[in-house]
Amino acid sequence: MVPVEYYLVLSAAVFSIGLYGLLTRENALLFLMSVELMLNAANINFVAFSAQWGNLTGQTFSLFVMALAAAEVAVGIGIILVLYRNFKDVDVTVPQSMRW
């Protein structure tokens, strides 16, 4: 069996890549992808510790996180479509405020 430390290192790397993408990108689609990476890093931790301790609680909670990620993408795509419709760009630095 693979030691849990390997999964923790993988999770830390994926989370760090997601955090870097969230802090440095200006494209709204890349924001969503970076948040998905961070949520997947949390899922790796949940599943790794669930397998180590031999219960299904972490895997069950990981399913809830995946459902949350799907809802987040649905709302995020709606916001991105409004952003593109109003400003003809998905750059988040262009709009100063979302006015009617």
UniProtKB/TrEMBL annotation:
Q: Does this entry carry the keyword Manganese? A: no
GO MF terms here are: NADH dehydrogenase (quinone) (non-electrogenic) activity
Q: Where in the cell is it found?
A: Membrane
Write down the membrane topology. Multi-pass membrane protein
- Name the enzyme's class: oxidoreductase
- Give the chief site where it resides: membrane
This protein's UniProt keywords: Membrane, Oxidoreductase, Transmembrane, Transmembrane helix, Transport
According to its UniProt record, the EC number is: 1.6.5.9
What transmembrane ranges does the database entry give? Answer: 6-23, 30-49, 61-84
The terms describing its cellular component in GO are: membrane
Q: Which family does it belong to?
A: Belongs to the complex I subunit 4L family.
List, alphabetically, the HAMAP family matched: NDH1_NuoK
State what protein this is by name: NADH-quinone oxidoreductase subunit NuoK
What's the source species for this entry? Halolamina litorea
